[in-house]
User: Fold these one by one.
Assistant:
Number 1:
Amino acid sequence: MSDGTFSAATSPSATEPLALVTMPQRPLGARDVRIKVRAIGVNPVDWKMRSGGPLRFAHRFVGPSGPLVVGVDFAGDVVEAGSAADLKRGTRVVGATNFARKQLGSYATEVVVRDDQCAVLPDAVSYDVAACLPVPGATMLAALGSAGAPPAGSRVLVLGASGGVGLTALQISRALKLTAVGVCSSRNTAVVERFGATAVDYTKGDPLEAARAHGPYDLILHAVGSATYPLDRCRPLLSSRGVVVLVVVRAADVPSFTFSRRVAKVLGKPERTTLEPLVAWAASGALEPIIEARFPLAEAERAHQVSKTGKVVGKLLLVP
Ligand SMILES: NC(=O)c1ccc[n+]([C@@H]2O[C@H](COP(=O)([O-])OP(=O)(O)OC[C@H]3O[C@@H](n4cnc5c(N)ncnc54)[C@H](OP(=O)(O)O)[C@@H]3O)[C@@H](O)[C@H]2O)c1
């Protein structure tokens, strides 16, 4: 065995279970940094990648060769830096891997990414908190961009308000002085309200009808899917400049976001420019992720089973 990373990886077969494997250490490019991973944020894409779908397809074409190492989000310490990298050994960072740059995923003891995929972590932000931020935060920031950066006072409706994306979106809304309404189930109304949003309980009547009373909305962040909350029921809740931003995209949505200016889709792609404001909000306490559970990396499968229930409140973490 070489001085490799110890990663949770799947075999090329999409249905293979996760397995811990030792892999050879990756060489560093000039702007790359090697990071000892301290915490990993679990996102649904991590298990979705294991069973096919467009991102897995893309990974096969443009990703690194060898087994699929899943995972995107991480926080840790720089242990080695390439000659042109702007991060020094010993720096605490948060970041996200990018398979389009031939990088392996973040379910590992060590990752190699480019310096501009990381932001420096102040001492005030723990590795656990930081690892919750990248994909959910980048997704909300991208959605706000799609909605034309709505000014303070604008109204935001979050469908799927209690999940990793939803709770992050509510807190970013609060930080930007946007007025947020979150659709969630009865058990999660308190957490939605804790972050300054109005909760709409989807178990009590028609949630879109109930949300209408708090609109119209300049952004509807759709983090559940149009099979549950159809787009033709969301669009009438928009203000004259409002946009429905799809976080979950179905094939049936393609005509809507292709032909309508009122519907967009996002892909949360964390990089330093998006990570820095998230870290600043976390340092000030404006972003305060809820961590439902932490699992050892070796129990990534268990974390995926929990995530697949679709019932997670906030985030799940893996710890190498
Ligand atoms: N496009 C992108 O870049 C991007 C980025 C991140 C995530 N995503 C996708 O977005 C989706 C959400 O991600 P996530 O990380 O937030 O997932 P998550 O944390 O697993 O979301 C779980 C939450 O969804 C809530 N929920 C389930 N059904 C609901 C419904 N009918 N109405 C309202 N809330 C409901 C659950 O609350 P209850 O138990 O109370 O129902 C639970 O708290 C996933 O499909 C993910 O793959 C896409």
Number 2:
Amino acid sequence: MIESKVEVKGFEAKHYDFLLQLGSFRKYGRMLKNAIAAMNIQPDDAILDLGCGTGKNSCLMAEFLERRGRILGLDIGDEMISQFNKKCAAYPNINVEKKRIDKPLPYQNEFEKVFLSFVFHGFPDEKRNRILANARRALKDGGQLVIFDFNEFDPDSKPFWFRIGFKKVECPLAFEYITMDWKSRLREQGFDNFEERLYFMDTIRLLIAYK
Ligand SMILES: C[S@@+](CC[C@H](N)C(=O)[O-])C[C@H]1O[C@@H](n2cnc3c(N)ncnc32)[C@H](O)[C@@H]1O
């Protein structure tokens, strides 16, 4: 049974990175690199990558780490995990585990950063609170929650070609997500001191919030 709207399976999972690059008119790769560069990753950071997908993001983040830094990716998709293992095989300090991020996780005060890339919008609201609680618990004091996902925006204010693509591809949860005041929500969940960068006609945001 598919519970979140960001579960990716079959053909889509197998070719996920390629399809993303194609669907974004080849802009996604560069945007992602810019966003990860803006995370200010330190060489000894421990990073928890929730809903880590194919490992593309973790490999890019690993470029900023030295051996004493580490990344743990969590995902539920077998196809995604297998791609992650292949892609990140060259990095001894990156691992992936099959775990649901919308159920209680065992990590406590362990990570400098928790990264959520294009996964958070795809959950029903009560599960988003569970994910935020997991992230907050996993972070060390002063650690950063980094959400790379849709910004708050009105699709009708965007060019027609974007509107049509967005409405065709995205799920109802994404439409709800983009209407929400995420800084207020994050404040209620124990995060503060926001930093943000906007991309792709202000429809995508790198939002950093501190525990
Ligand atoms: C849209 S993809 C994004 C992948 C990656 N973060 C990226 O930016 O490329 C969403 C990912 O979340 C994973 N996912 C969906 N529901 C999940 C859950 N409940 N727990 C863990 N991972 C989940 C999917 O398997 C998929 O790999």
